Amino acid sequence: EELVTALSSLIPQLSSSAAPITSDVVQSVLDDEAVTVFIARHNEKIVGTLSLAIFHIPTGVRAWIEDVVVDDDARGLGVGLALTQAAIEYASTHGARSVDLTSRASRTAAHRLYEKAGFHIRETNVYRYFLES
Fold first, then answer.
1. 21: closest CA among 38, 40, 5?
2. Bridge partners, residue 100, by sequence
């Protein structure tokens, strides 16, 4: 329940279009063997999260970071960098040769964080196909 409460506050800071978080959604993520959720605490409160997906495909082990969010009140404390570095280390120990992520163009502070963590912009196109719900 602590994580559900924290995510209910954190996710809207990341995305205005995300559906409200529920216990069932959180449990589904935690039950997924391909996903590891990292949390950061400050003064015993969850102030940041990051989701890392590691999966096997014919060309190797892939690692993908998603949903990195740090509470507005905890920004500047190094939380995002600590979460990102922990995810990179975890991916490395689980066979990934690289870690990918995407970030909206408007998130300039996040871009600085990822560059500080050692990420490089990759020349690629990201395509999205919307499924009907």
1. 5
2. 64
Task: State the CB neighbour count (10 A cutoff) for residue 52.
Answer: 26
pLDDT score at 67: 95
Q: Decide if 35 contacts 55 (C-beta within 8 A).
A: no
| Angle of helix 23-31 versus helix 2-14 axis, rounded to 10 | 100
- Residue 83, both tokens: 């979460």
pTM of whole model > 0.85?
Answer: yes
Residue 94: closest CA among 33, 28, 27: 33
Q: What angle do CA 54, 16, 120 make, to 5 degrees?
A: 45
Which one, of 79, 8, 5, 72, lies nearest residue 38 by Cα?
Answer: 79
Q: Could you tell me the mean pLDDT of each successive run of 10 residues in the chain, 133 residues long?
A: 96 92 96 98 96 96 97 94 98 96 91 95 90 80
What pLDDT does 111 receive?
Answer: 94
For 77-91, letters b (16+ CB in 10 Å) and e give eebbebbbebbbebb
What pLDDT sits at residue 26?
96
